[in-house]
Structures are given as C-alpha cells and as structure tokens.
Amino acid sequence: MHGRPRNASKPEEEAASAAKAVQLRSLQSQFMTNHHDKIYTNEAIELSTKLLEINPEAYTAWNYRKLAVEDRLARIEPDPNLVSAILDEELRVVESALRQNFKSYGAWHHRKWVLSKGHSSVGNELRLLEKFQKLDSRNFHAWNYRRFVVELTNRSEQDELQYTDDMINNNFSNYSAWHNRSVLLSSLLAQNADGFMPNIKIPEEYDFVHSAIFTEPDDQSGWFYHLWLLDQTLNVETPLLTSSWPSHGSSIILSGAGCLSGSSSMFTTFCSESGSFPLILYFDQAVGGVSSSTVTIDSELKGNEGLVWEPIPNKNSQVSCVWVARLKYVSSDPCEYKVKIRVGNSPGIVSSRGYNFNAPYEFVFTAHVHDTVEDSQEGIVSWTDGFDIWDAKSKDLNSLVTLDRLNAEMDFKWRQEAIDSEVECFGILPDSKIGKLTLARLLMAREAMVSDDAVKGVHYEEILQLYNDLMALDSSHYQYYKDEHSKAFLHKVTSSSESLSRHLLRYRDMNNLVCLRLNNLSLSRIASVEKLLFVQMLDLSHNELHSTEGLEAMQLLSCLNLSHNRIRSFSALDSLRHVKQLKVLDVSHNHIGKHSVDTTRYLCSSPLSNSELGQDDVGKQNPGLVTKYWDAYCVLRDLNLKQLDIAGNEIAGEEFSSFVLQVVPKLVWLDGQKKLGN
Amino acid sequence: MIDLPPYPPLDPSNYDLIVVGTGVSESVFAAAASSSGSSVLHLDPNPFYGSHFASLSLPDLTSFLHSNSVSPPPPPSSPPLPPSNNHDFISVDLVNRSLYSSVEISSFESEILEEHSRRFNVDLCGPRVVFCADESINLMLKSGANNYVEFKSIDASFVGDSSGELRNVPDSRAAIFKDKSLTLLEKNQLMKFFKLVQSHLASSTENDDTTTVKISEEDMESPFVDFLTKMRLPPKIKSIILYAIAMLDYDQDNTETCRHLLKTKEGIDRLALYITSVGRFSNALGALIYPIYGQGELPQAFCRRAAVKGCIYVLRMPITALLLDKETGGYKGVKLATGQEIFSQKLILDPCVTIGLESLSSLTDQENETISVLVPKALINKEKVARGICVIRGSVKADVSNALIVYPPKSLFPEQLTAIRVLQLGSGLAVCPADMHVLYLSTLCDNDDQGIKALLSAMSNLVRLPDPKNQQSDSVVENDTCEAKPILLWRALYVQQLVKGEFGGTISSMPSPDGNLNYNEIVESALKLYEQLMGSEELFKEETSVENTTEENDDGVDIED
Questions:
Q1: Hey, what CATH class is A241-376 in?
Q2: Where in the cell is it found (chain B) (predicted)?
Q3: How far is CA A13 from CA A8, A9, B145, B233, B552, in A?
Q4: Looking at chain B, which residue has its C-alpha nearest residue A213?
C-alpha cells in the first residue's frame, strides 16, 4: 500500500474509467431520486449497494442505508433473526466496499454504526481486522476501528499491547502500531496495572525501540516513539513551582518613582510609580487555579487581601506557567516588612493535563520600603557608557537566583538512570542527524535533572557542539537547530551563579542597576527566563532574535535593548505589552516595516483581529495612520515608554516618528532626540 | 543384473537421445530435450527415480550406499571380455564407478526404526534445499514441473559453535530487529551493509544510478572477506554473512587452506540470491524451501514433465556396453542388460558409468576419441564431500522443526578448515515419523578421515547417544538436568567423490552431486549441455506460453503456510 509509484494511465484505462463514470452517473441519479422520495424498497436498496460497490466514497449512500435500515427495522416484527439478517447485509456491503477501498471513511463509519446497534460478534470484527491489517499493516482506519472494537469488549489492554508487539516484530516501520502502543501504555501506566510501573516499564520500552532505531536509523517511526518515551521520562505529572520573584530569603528595597540616591549595591531595589510591586510565580508547566485562596500572603503590607492573580501573557486564558499579582505598599512610610507566601496550601492549582499541584511551598522575603528622594531625572539611558564590571564574588546573587525546581521530586532516580543509559546508548550511534539531535536532547534532559552542583553544566559544551554540527549537516532545519542552540546557551549561562555573573554589569547612571548583557551571541530564541526574573535591564543587542516571546515573564524589566536583531514587525514585540515596567526600548536596526506580513511567526495578528482599533483619541484624529501602522499602534499604546529607538528600520521616518509621539505621549527620548516642547 | 526378469524388448529401438541415470541434471536435461521435440529414452539401473539425488527408506539407503561404495575390487566373475566384434559394431563394456567411501551405518534403537523403516524418505545427497529465488525454481515454473512438487519453508537458520548455543541468523530487517544476541551497534552495521548491497543491486538493474550508492569496481574485484572488513563489520557478523548467508565452504581468512577465495562480485551475487529469496513467496517464511517427501521429488517432477512430452522411461535397466561404428569408430548405441541393442544420435550418462581401463588398449584412436569422456581421469582435485545422516528423537532447538544450522570454519575445533552445514527436517515434510527429525550434515574435505572427524564433531555438538544403561526407560534420561539434546537413533556417515561433468560430441557424462546447499550448479550443467546439444533452441518454450498465464496468481510454487 505504500511506496508504490504512480503511473500515468494508458488510453484504454482512461476509456474504461470514462465508461465507469457514465455508469456511475446514471446509478447516482437514480439513487438520488430514491433518496429524495424516501423509497426503501428492496430494489432501491439494491441500487445503493451497487453504487457503493463501485464507489465506496458515496457518503450520501451510506447515510441513505442508515435511514433504510431504520425504516425496515421499524416495520418488521421484533424477531432477532430478521434483525440480524438486515444488519448482516449491512456488514457484508461494508466489507465489499472496504475491499474496493480500504480507506473509505464512510464505510468504516457505517460499520461502527452497525456495531453500535449491538450487532456482530466482536470476535468476527477482530478476525476481519486481522485480515485487513495483514494486507496493510499501517492503515490508520483499521487501527482506529480496532480501538473502537476493543473498547466494546473486555479484551484486555495487555492483549492489545501484545498485538502491537507482533505487528512491530513483523515490520517495525509502522507508525500506527507504535502509536497504539503509546496509547495503551499510557493507559496501563495511569491505571498502575500489574507490572506497569513507569520505573520498570519505560526502561523496557527504551530497550525495545533501540532495536528499531539502531537497525534502521533512517526510519522515523521508532524515533517518534523514542520521543514519546523521552517525554514520559521527563514529564513529571504533578506541576511544580520553578521559581519566584522575590525569591525565598531575599530582601528587596522598594521605592517610589524615580531613583534612589545614595544606596550603593542594591540591585534588589525596585522603583515603582504605582506603589505596588509584582509577585511572580513561575511553574514548570501551565497551571490554572492560582488565586488568593490557593496562594496565601501573610504580611503587614496593608490592602493586599483578595489579591488578583493574572496569568501572563494572556489574561483571558485559564492556564499559564507564569502568574503575577501586584502587592501594594505605601512609599511615604519607610519601614520593613516580612512577607510570607504559601503556594498551594489549599487545593485548587491544577495543571492543564489535570494533575494537582500537591507539593505546597512556602517562601519568605523582606521588603524595605524607602523614601523617594526626588523625581526622576528623565535622563537618556545609554547602552554603551556607564557600566561597571560586576563583582563576581558577590554573594547577593545567590539569594536572587533560585535555581532549579523548588520542590524535590521523589521518583527522580529511575528517570535519571533512564536518561543516563540513553545518553550512553546514543553516544555510540554513528553519525546520523537524528542521532545527534537525540543525543543533544538527552544531554539537555540530563542537565535539567542534575541537582549535584559538581557535575552541573558539564554537558553544555557538547550540546552546543552537537547543534553546531547539525546546523552544518542539515541546512533545511537550520533555524530549528539555531533556536535549540540558543536555548542550550542560555541554559548554560543561567546554570550557575558564576556563569551568570560573567554577563552581569552595573549601570551607574541608574543607581548601579544590574544589567544582564547577552549581546553579540547570535541568539535566536529566548529561554531560561524563569531564572532571570530579577533582571531590570537587559541587553540583547546584536543577536538574531525574531521575537520577544518569553520576555513577558520578566515583570521587573525596565530597560531593554533589542537593536541589531531580526525583528520584522511590531507584532513580534507583542509580548512586551505585558511588561508594565518597561520604560526604555531600543529596537533600532531591525527589519521592522520591511515586510507587510511577518511570515516568520506562526500566528500573525492582523488589523482585523483588533476590532477596537482606532476607537481612542489617536485613532479618531488619525485613522489613516492608525490603519497604516496598526501593529506598532497596538503595541506602543500599551507601553509606558520614556525612551524609544527605532532608527535603522524600514518603518522609521518623519511620519512614523510623529505618529509614535502621538501614541506615546509620555515619551521623552525618540532616537536619541529629546522630545521638543516637553 | 543377471537375475533380471524377462523384459519385453523396447520399441522403437532408435532415439535422438538416450539418457542414463535419473539424477537432477539428467532429468532436467531429459525434460528440456523432450519438450523441444527430441525423442528420448531415459533409463535408470535402479528401481527408483533420482539416482544419487534420491530419497529412500532407511534399508534402501543402506543397501544403495553399500553397493555403490569402494570395496576391494569385485573379483571378476568372468575375465573381462575383449571388445566383442560380433556384428557391425564394436561393443565396449561399461563398468560402474563407486562414488562413496568410508560408509559407516549404525543403528542405536533398531526396534523402533524397523517398526517405522518405511516411513522415512531420507536424502542421499543432503543437506540440500532450494532458495526461493533459485534458478531451479524458475526452471520448474517454466517447465511446469512445479505441478508435481509441493514445498514448505525452512523455519529458521542458525549459526552454531563449540559452546552448543545456536544463534539466529539475522537475515532480514525484521530478523535483525528481533535478534537478541546482536548489540545495537552490530544491528546498525549489519543493516547498513544489507542496504548497501540492496542499493548496489538496484543501481545495477536500473541505469539511472546517480543517487544510489554503488560498490566500486575495485572493491568488486577484491576478496569479499576484505570488503567486509573494509565495511568495518565485526568478526561475528562477517562470519554470519560469509558462511550462513553466502554459504561459503572454505575459511576465507586462511589463504593457505582456502580453495576458493570469493570475490566481492560473487559475494554480492550470493547475497542477492538470499535477499531476493526472502519474501519471494508470500507464504514462505524465509529464504529457503524444501520439497515435501524429500528432495527425490525434484528429479521425479522433471521426469514426469519429460514423460508428458513423450520421453520413454525404463527403470531397473542398466546398460552394459557401448556400441561403436566399426568403420568410423563413432557412437551408435548401447546394449541393455536384457541384451537388446538400442540406437541413438547422442548419449548422456550418469557420472558412475565409466569404461574399464583394460578395455581401452584394444581400441583404435578414433574409438578412444569417441569414448574419451568416459575414461576415468586421475583426479587432480582431491576434493570430496563428507555427508552424514542422523535420525534423532526430539529437535536440536525447541519449537523449531525445519532448520538450517551452519558451523563456520574453526567454530567447532581449531583445525576445522571448512564450514559444516546441518539441515534438520521434521515429519511435517513427510520425511520421518512424528516426534523424530532427520539431520543432514555435510562438509568439504580432502580426505575421508578429515571429513568424518568434522561431521562427528558437529554431531556430538547437537545430539547425544542413547545411554546404554537407560535405554529402556526414557524417563531417567529426561530427568537429567543437562540441556536436553535430542537422542541419536540411527546414523550414516559416508564420503562422496566429486565428479565433474564432461561434455563430448556424442557422449556426455553428467556431474555427481556437488557440495553446495542448492541445485544451481547442477541445473546449470544440464542447461549448458542442452545448449551444446540443442543449439539455440529455446528452453521449455511451449510451456512458457501455456502455463504462465494460469499460474501467475500464486507464482506457481505451492507452499503451504
């Protein structure tokens, strides 16, 4: 059934198919007349049989037969023999239709319909399936139907698992069999069926699929199953809290708008105009149900009862990895508060796959509220001058960066062992692209699991090398490898305080604000954000970024440099709309405006998706410009920027500058020029 | 010969061809010649079809081996007659050459065997099987001989060594996947190699070979064993490919003792045969099949085909003398044991028929020329094949009935120079009673002792002698904790000479059974002779058009599942 070349049809074949078409058309029109007139005589039914034998794809004919069967069943005595004679005839028609076209949706569905009437022995169906599956072992219709039949019976999932064994042993290039195996195993593992403990079964499955992968690395079906197994190994079902800001044991300094003077090394300082600061919870998987009842706050900070938790980035979504609440404080009143947060004390936090957050976690931090000295200077932020080297010995970092999962997981041991043996196994697979990719993924997984600091981070060089090799070997998937390379690189940077501190600087002009410098690293993706929640100033210039996706979790971010990247539109900056602190943004020297539609992104927003477009003052005054720069408009109006650099993009120009000044009235600096008349 | 019952004289007494012996090559030739319209008389001195390819009951096999083995030269009952000169012809007496030596037959449970003795169909020249893609299968389909034979598949193939362990031969993608003894890396290397071979074969059949990988000319001319090394295949896999798939005999790593160092070109051909055999018939499990009722069915099938086309068959009919033209010294006919003289254009003889050396002296040069192919030559190549047959109770491998086992050179003992092949066949093939199996063993050797030693070593690896003390009570034997090797009930050991065929102008001599696992070289010699004698006449042309249309559906060969 697979891999058969398509041959051009010969003239005589074409003539035959033309004759068939004529016959079919006449049958079809007679049949349609019967159907319309609701004629269910034997002759009429026979006609539909004939039609379906020639063309099993005639869906209407299948539906007609259903009506005819219902009609006949209603009119006969409730004699079981008569009923089964009628239904047997249906099964026979389906069978001959399937012989004609094994992939006829209508025929398979009709059979299900007959079975749902409680007819035909399941043993018969399995025998029929066996026959069909011998002819075409991969046909997904048959596999689907098989699952349907099995569900009707008490045939055990273990027996079905054995069946996939047999099919795979026969020919392991069978996606359908591997897929069914994963479905059955998931179910058996979830039920904790006898002998189906993940710590025993998953390693056995690895051994099984290795034979397929090593026998023929070019065959993809085994690799798909391997990927599924890897997923089972890595995914801990219960959601975990990965990190938070403020982190446990940290002390932060809060002040009002503007900058503190005189305070020295306080990178934990957070300035806010609104008298509130964000509390960020970062989970390892999307969860829902984060609320003031599931997360309790114990502090003397007043007015924080019934705190509102918002999922980032989509307010309307039920689940997210990142949840943010804003704690209020009174800035005029310097003092010190202890804040205790309890996550998951009462049940309600549930992962998107339905697992409960069942490892309650408690963390404590201290908030010092300082007086505001004076209003901000509104000076321009320079990305080139005014930086000091970070004192690498500083211990302060440790309290800021809470590394790794906050909650220890009990059954990590088999997972680690499984990954270790996989790494060893794929280390010997001679050069193949998929082998290298798998090894890189496995090494990443191993790094994610290691908790021992001594061996942490030792694989990153190898991972990066593997992705470099892959980029050279397989240019058609270059961008994917590039993205993975970036992720691995960022994991490496954030894997320890030492490596992270190499990228940290102090920015003198803003009270020694900590600046994370990740420029000139050819990054194409942002990752490891959960470990960078404290960052307020971020330099990502001279990279290959296409979008700011991921940065939305960095709620403290106030200055961001994205100059000299590959951003193609303002929609690619959409995630920044959620970063309420952002004041300074440099997107100069990108490709904004070069293409009308940003094809590099999976989902593109469009003017049509923003119905409220042009409903505000700017829109009313300048409908033409709003339509022209709709994507810039959508992003910029939600930001409170004071400084924006846009030069070096196609979109930049006098018209756009004046538009920006209208949309962002608070803007002080545009492309290094202080706004006039302000 | 003397006590032959009175036999009515044959009519007619003149033929295009007389063929003596009903071995595979003679029978294929007779079928081909009859099919192209020649009149053929096919004789066999034995009371059964197949000659040295026959399948016989145990007593018949025993007496055939004994009567055809080298024993002290029979005392001439009457002094050899000088070529007689009675009629218009010179008559030259023929003598029988013995193919077998060192025949040793032992029975360990005579009672049981006697009870079942007629239920055995034991091959004289085992182990022998057919590859699904063999030329002999094509020939059967072409000739229609397939109508008279049914095949079954050989279920498994193993490689053995001195440890007694039998490991599966990973000979297909699914077998490699399932194999438990190969490491992952070995699976990878072996499959890669198979794919290289397949890609090479594909590129040589289709000419647009820009993308497919081809093995270089230089590699094709190099020794196959070196090529396998170059492909970085580990020794274990090399050994499997060389001896259990390419079915080589000589130790390819030992240049001193290796009589036939295979070139890559030939190695690829052998792999191609194996690869194309797997899956040729949907109901055959692997590459190999075997005829039900024994391999004697094969020559018989061709004989039946020949008979349908008008060939006349007479069994139990030895020929005693050649008749040569007095004037020219050319071949005229033969004298039968009945005394009748039969004439033909050409004569094809079984390899056993020769001329007594003492007869030669009195012949003219021309006469000598005519019969030269029958004169026994001093053997340049002393190569022989040692064969063994065991009847056993039980099976060498649980749950497997029909299986091929190969012991590569040096796998049993250090001095083992050649591969030993063992074929186990069960009652499903109607060759022995239920719960028993027949094992066939063979190996090439230079002398009898060497060959017998190798066979005995393989036998002791696979079977055990019944313990004389426990002969009565099997239960005691079974309680024994040692792994239950099957029990030997009967054994035959013998060494067979390898005689090459010789094709003359009018008289030709066919080859003896060879040391190979299949029939390809034997069938090839029959076809070569056909070509030589019949010229460009197309082989089985009539059948091709008639039979193929009706048989396309099941590809002709009846293989039960």
A1: mainly beta
A2: Cytoplasm
A3: 10, 6, 36, 50, 21
A4: B188
Q: What is the DSSP string of A316-378?
A: T-S-EEEEEEEEE--TTS-EEEEEEEEESSSS--EETTS-B--S-EEEEEEEEE----S----
pTM, 2 dp = 0.79
- Are A215 and B185 inside 8 Å of each other by CB? no
Count of Cβ atoms closer than 10 Å to residue A454 Cβ: 7
Residues B2-10, mean pLDDT to the nearest whole number: 68
How far away is chain B from the Cα of A156, in angstroms, using its nearest Cα?
24
pLDDT tens for residues A197-220? 888 899 999 999 999 999 988 888
ipTM: 0.76
CA dihedral (A17, A23, A29, A34) in degrees, to 10, reads: -130
A13-234 matches A241-376 in fold: no
**Average pLDDT, integer, range A362-370:** 83
Whether domain A13-234 has CATH 1.25.40.120 = yes
Q: How far is B194 from chain A (nearest CA, A)?
A: 11
Please report, in angstroms and rounded to a whole number, the separation of the first and last CA atoms in chain A: 74
Q: Between A and B, how many CB-CB pairs are < 8 A?
A: 39
Looking at chain B, the number of H-run helices and the number of E-run strands are 17, 24
What mean pLDDT is reported for chain A? 83
Contact indicator for B137, A129 with CB cutoff of 8 Å: no
Domain extents for chain A? 13-234, 241-376, 412-450+454-491, 496-599+611-674
- Tell me how close the Cα of B152 comes to any Cα of chain A, in angstroms: 20
**pLDDT band (50, 70, 90) for residue B481:** very low
Who's near B72: CB < 8 A, 6+ residues apart? none
* B191 chain-A contacts, CB cut-off 8 A: 215-216
CATH number, span A496-599+611-674: 3.80.10.10
Question: How would residue A64 be classed by pLDDT, with cut points 50, 70 and 90?
Answer: very high
A51 shares contact with chain B (CB less than 8 Å)? no
